[in-house]
Amino acid sequence: MYSATEGRIGNKKVILAGTNNYLGLTFNHDAIAEGQAALAAQGTGTTGSRMANGSYAPHLALEKEIAEFFNRPTAIVFSTGYTANLGVISALADHNAVVLLDADSHASIYDACSLGGAEIIRFRHNDAKDLERRMVRLGERAKEAIIIVEGIYSMLGDVAPLAEIVDIKRRLGGYLIVDEAHSFGVLGATGRGLAEAVGVEDDVDIIVGTFSKSLASIGGFAVGSEAMEVLRYGSRPYIFYRLSFSVLHCDRALVVKNHCLTTRVAAKADG
């Protein structure tokens, strides 16, 4: 790979049309230096899962950084964006729950709902009216329903009608989870995603994201209220995962870099 948009196949230079390296941070010098220093100082692995002996200061520092970035009291880091969805949704959407999700939701969302055993109700892609119809049919159950949408749908490139969905939630109840995997670092004045761009962050109960898209690294996260802390004791993808020190340090450096980049871009746009 030469850059965020160019690579090589054999001796031929090619355009990377499928890249997720949205901010071009793959070769960010600060992140690479942080990762190299962590490898030298702390070794290649944590030697244990988070629940056992695998929670270290870098885990807590990264979670604190993410929580502060999103202005939320709690952040939980996972090994990937896929396992972040799996860990959060499967723990909340058990056999007693009903989940309303966009028909074009990512595979990780479908897998998480199936793993938890929840009742799944699909609504037509980006169709807030269809969502409302299905919520109304639930009657009193709508108040405890879980609505799941994505900030940007990766295969289609469109965004969720989040303002309309929030309006439905305000009127009929329910909990809202937004997967900002492809919108984190891209949308919003500071890069927090679609919820920030639309101005409805306070109405989103949990935001799930990944470090593997705009931050060009690996790992996933979820942010929410203090009540989300219970997931540390009931989410298997969290309890049994481990993430190397070098990745944790890279991710933390890239969160800071992302904030600097998006703030500069927003300032130029306003100017």
TrEMBL record:
GO MF, one example: transaminase activity
Lineage: Bacteria, Pseudomonadati, Pseudomonadota, Gammaproteobacteria, Enterobacterales
Sequence ranges assigned to domain Aminotransferase class I/classII large in this UniProt record: 13-240
Identification of the protein by name: Putative aminotransferase
Cofactor section: pyridoxal 5'-phosphate
Domain of life: Bacteria
Family of this protein: Belongs to the class-II pyridoxal-phosphate-dependent aminotransferase family.
Keyword Transferase in annotation: yes
Keywords: Acyltransferase, Aminotransferase, Pyridoxal phosphate, Transferase
EC number annotated for this UniProt entry: 2.3.1.47
Species the sequence originates in: Escherichia coli
Coiled-coil region: none
InterPro entries per the UniProt record, alphabetical: Aminotrans_II_pyridoxalP_BS, Aminotransferase_I/II_large, AON_synthase_class-II, PyrdxlP-dep_Trfase, PyrdxlP-dep_Trfase_major, PyrdxlP-dep_Trfase_small
EC class: transferase
